[in-house]
Amino acid sequence: MTPSITVDYRAALTAETDALADLMRTADPATPIPACPGWSLANLMTHVGRGHRWAAAMITERATERLDFRAVPEGAMPKDPDAAARWLRDSARLVLDAVDATGSEVRVWALFGPPCPAEWWIRRRLHEATVHRADVLLALDREVTMSADLAADGISEWLGLLDTALRGSPVAALPDGVTMHLHATDPGLDSAGEWTIRGTGSGIEWDHGHAKGTVAVRGAAVALLLAILRRIPADHPGLEIHGDAAVFSRWLDNTPF
Fold first, then answer.
1. 194-199 and 179-184 as β-strands: parallel, antiparallel, unpaired?
2. In whole angstroms, what is the distance from residue 179 CA to residue 112 CA?
3. Which of 1, 32, 122, 255 is most open to solvent, judged by the fewest CB atoms within 10 Å of its CB?
4. What is residue 181's DSSP assignment?
């Protein structure tokens, strides 16, 4: 049985997007974002706000095929900082309003796999905002903070995407029979803070729970999330690696978004 953690996806999507909007009002929009080479803060904010609107448009139109990202209504972020912040905040609410108007169970296009219930996009857009908020904080040399529950859910959501995206990949992220164990050290997560990923030859499979892996990576849930998304290096002091470190390096090299 999948362990439960407490994340209100609707409230968290609004809160994470609002936090990004606050950064837009206080930081230089020309700030480079090292985690997204070639992007400035303005580029990143446009990406998130337009992405929210893109998801809302697909939900509203009950699209079963991918819509053109460039054709999203009001997809251009205003240049005025206050207007840009309002535009970004509004984009998250458009996702929620679209789900409510269309129906949470109506199936629409989703990344990598078959159409999914419209509410799937709330969680997806939440973690898009969460990780990009981390990108901005790292660019500003600030600490990345989030609840352990939210970070742990981000890891599970990412593994769920990879479970579909890596099927049939010509290069295995994990060789057949090789395992990787992630262990969040935050108190209170219990089995929701442990993940075991196995290579199957044609992709991966994963579940929660404690197990000995070919490699084990330990750290706070937020550090694990940032590590598997390549936002911090494998030798970051917030991480402990036990076993075959080359397995973790291979995983990182072969799991780009």
1. antiparallel
2. 23
3. 1
4. E
d(C-alpha 213, C-alpha 245), whole Å: 11
Instruction: Please state which architecture CATH assigns to domain 148-253.
Output: 2-Layer Sandwich (3.30)
- As its CATH architecture, domain 9-139 has Up-down Bundle (1.20)
Q: First vs last Cα of the chain: how many Å apart?
A: 28
Q: Which residues of 53-84 are buried (b: 16+ CB within 10 A; e: fewer)?
A: bbbbbbbbeeeeeeeeeeebeebebeeeeeeb
- Provide the token pair at 114: 């078959």
pLDDT at 257: 67
Contact present, 150 and 9 (Cβ < 8 Å): no
Place of tokens 């219930």: 117
Short-list 127, 121, 73, 130, CA closest to 96: 121
What is the rounded CA–CA span in Å between residue 8 and residue 43? 28
Q: Which two tokens stand for residue 111?
A: 């990344």
